Amino acid sequence: MSYRELRNFCEVMRSLGYHRTISMENFRTPNFELVADILDWLLHRFEPNAHIPDDISTEAHRVQFIKAVCEKIVLRTGTKLNSKKLYGADGYAVKELLRLAQVLYDAQKSVVNSTAEEMSSEDFTLSSKLADIKNTRSLCSQIVESGASLFDLLQKEGEVRQDRDKALRFLDGMSRNLGSNSEADVVERAVSQLLGNHGQNLTQLKTMTEEMQRDEKTLETKIKKKQQELERCRKRLGSLASVRPAFMDEYEQLEEELERYYEQYVGRFRNLDYLEHEIDVLNSEEKERMEENDRALKRMQKRLRDEEWRLLRGEEDDKGGKGKPKKIHGQKRWMPPSGNTEAAAENSPDDDESEEESGSDSDPPISIGGSEGSDIGGGLSGGDHLHGDEGSVRIGADGSGSDDDILNESDGDDDLSDDDGMGGGSGQQHHKSGTDFDF
Q: Which of 49, 215, 316, 432 is the residue whose CA sits 20 to 30 A from 408?
């Protein structure tokens, strides 16, 4: 079988539309299954209704299959095939298969007017081109591998050439001088030299082996000693673990004491935290109460200032109007202390003018229980009284007193006398029934 015949067979089978891809590597070794499949396919192309045995598992069945196919082909086409070559299923069987496939290929080429055959031929051409691409790729990879191996061998050629030439010269000398002993002596010397070298190597290996055996024994001795020490240490550890230390009682006692102290510490820390929280709450409440007292005091001071100025303006009106003062009925009055009047006079220039106009006819201020001063609050404190000549008014401890607590509404219809209230200039105050202030 030649390479060209195998290539032609592959191309013919592709053009005929064989369902399997046939490569040139398939027939390097016997492949009876592929040959049987090709024969069956070609026979059915000649005779679609042909019946042949399909079992090729045993040698007898394969022989029967080859005989049946050859008989059918001879009867159908008149082509006689070599059954022995077909049974071999190697490269020689390709020649017989090519003869049979060539008949179909020639018949297919003779038909040119069938549209269906033209379409199938186009498909075959396309499939053959695709197969050629695959084969080309495989060949390219093989070429690359062969080139790489050839390059490596050429690189080693310089080293191998001398040995090859020497061997060739030796063989030539042996062939020329078969009767002489010179070449035999050379061979004997070379062999003896090799034996001597190997003997030296063997001696070195024996020495190394003996040294390794001695090292092995030494290591085994050390291992045994270490194992004995390990056993002794384990026994000692077991004995120490079974004996209770002398300090364990003291240790347990100190541990219990530490736990007790820790519990006390935790309890005291919680109590301290709670007390700090309570102090914060009390401080906040105290701060709020003081702020509320300050606000109440400011409201009362403002009310006193307003009442004082209304009183002063009312006296001026009485002086400029009728000689008899008007009766104050059903009003709440409050006389500011002298400290409040002085503070109000310092803060307002209009107040100074009003005081100058009033002169000595203005009523003297009513003193509040506490020291007089520039502060408007004077000596007011929790639980202090506002004292008059004959009565007093109670101010609450929180500094917030209602109008009923400060001034009570007058129940009578007493008049303000000219002599006692404004004419004498003494400015005495008379408290009647503990509810009204007469000026």
A: 316
Q: Which two tokens stand for residue 400?
A: 């917030």
The candidate with the shortest Cα–Cα distance to 27, out of 12, 41, 9, is: 9
- Residues 6 or more apart from 17 whose CB is under 8 A from it? 120, 123, 124, 127
Note the helical H segments in 156-247.
157-176, 182-242
Residue 338 and residue 370 in contact, taking contact as beta carbons nearer than 8 Å: no
Residues 99-149 have pLDDT tens digits of: 888 888 877 777 644 555 555 555 556 666 777 788 888 888 899 999 988
Q: How far apart are CA 38 and CA 20, in angstroms?
A: 9
d(CA 307, CA 286): 31
**The pair of three-digit structure tokens given for residue 217, joined into one six-digit string:** 């024994």
Q: Coil, helix or strand for 101?
A: helix
What is the amino acid identity at position 176?
Answer: R
Q: For the purposes of burial, counting CB atoms within 10 Å of the CB of 436, is it exposed (0-12), middle (13-18) or buried (19 or more)?
A: buried
For residue 214, what are its two tokens?
A: 């001695």
- Amino acid at residue number 361: D
Alpha helices in 90-156 (DSSP H): 91-110, 115-155
Number of DSSP helices (H) and strands (E) in the chain, helices first: 13, 4
Contact (CB, 8 A) for 300 and 398: no
Q: Is the model's pTM score more than 0.90? A: no
Is the CB of residue 363 less than 8 Å from the CB of residue 315? Answer: yes
Q: State the Cα–Cα distance between residues 102 and 96, nearest whole angstrom.
A: 10
The rounded Cα 383 to chain-centroid distance in angstroms is 70
Q: 362-405: per-residue pLDDT in tens?
A: 444 444 333 443 443 344 444 444 444 444 444 444 444 444 44
Exposed e or buried b per residue across 354-369, where buried means at least 16 C-beta atoms within 10 angstroms of its C-beta: beeebeebbbebbbbb
